[in-house]
Design a protein that fits this description.
Blueprint lengths: L2 H14 L4 H7 L3 H16 L9 H8 L3 H12 L3 H19 L8 H7 L5 H12 L3 H9 L1
Length: 145
């Protein structure tokens, strides 16, 4: 089963569960629109669009939708806000790259943050710790040993 199909199934199961009746009423977006945006979000993720500086408004324009719909879909599907969604994609990407590309382990924390799309070291370090539970330097030390 494709990752996109899995995401869509999860999304609709989540939306239709008995505990989320209020989400259906508040989402107020047609199923076709949701599916289209979900597909475009999947393409955005696969093409690593999150590695560039991007705002909710900019991404909404790229996806051909409005920021309100995009925000609602991210909030409902991923159960996080736009910033957390983007930051988590960046951290997941970096962790995967660190495991496969040994040369990255030699980079500074600042350079790792830049490589993964963060504008500054502080936001990178905070997001990394929030996602993994450890600081970037602690994580790197476990990879080096």
């Amino acid at each position: 089963m494709s990752p996109l199909l899995q995401k869509m199934i999860f999304f609709f199961e989540h939306l239709l569960s008995a505990n989320n009746d209020s989400n259906i009423k508040t989402l107020q977006i047609s199923e076709d629109t949701i599916l289209t945006i979900m597909e475009k979000l999947s393409d955005f993720e696969n093409n690593k669009g999150f590695l560039k500086q991007i705002s909710l408004n900019t991404l909404a324009k790229k996806l051909g939708t409005n920021p309100k719909y995009l925000s609602k879909i991210i909030n409902n599907h991923y159960e996080k806000n736009f910033s957390s969604y983007i930051n988590d994609l960046r951290i997941k990407y970096l962790i995967k790259e660190l495991k496969t590309d040994g040369s990255l382990k030699k980079l500074t924390i600042k350079d790792l943050g830049k490589k993964s799309g963060f504008g500054n070291t502080e936001s990178f370090s905070k997001s990394f710790k929030k996602y993994t539970g450890v600081t970037p330097s602690s994580y790197l030390s476990t990879l080096k040993s």
